[in-house]
Amino acid sequence: MKKEKVSYRFYPYDGKVLNARRELSFEIRLTSRLILDEICFNWNKKMLEERIDRSIQKGNKEEFASVRKEYLQYIWE
Asked: pTM to 2 decimals?
C-alpha cells in the first residue's frame, strides 16, 4: 500500500480570541464538596466543644445548656 503524505499549513488567526472553559467531572465536584463538608463539620464541632469547655470553666449553666443543644446535633449518631 502506498504511503500517504500529510502536510499542514498554519495561518495566523486574525479573529477574536476565544477563552475555552474546561468542565470538571462529576466525580471531582462530588469529592471536593464532600471533603469541604467534612472540613466544615469538624471545624464547627471543634468550636462547639471549645465553647462547652469555656462555659464549664466559667460555671455558666445557661450558656452550657444552649451550646449543648447545638452540640447534640453533631453527635446524634
From this structure: 0.61
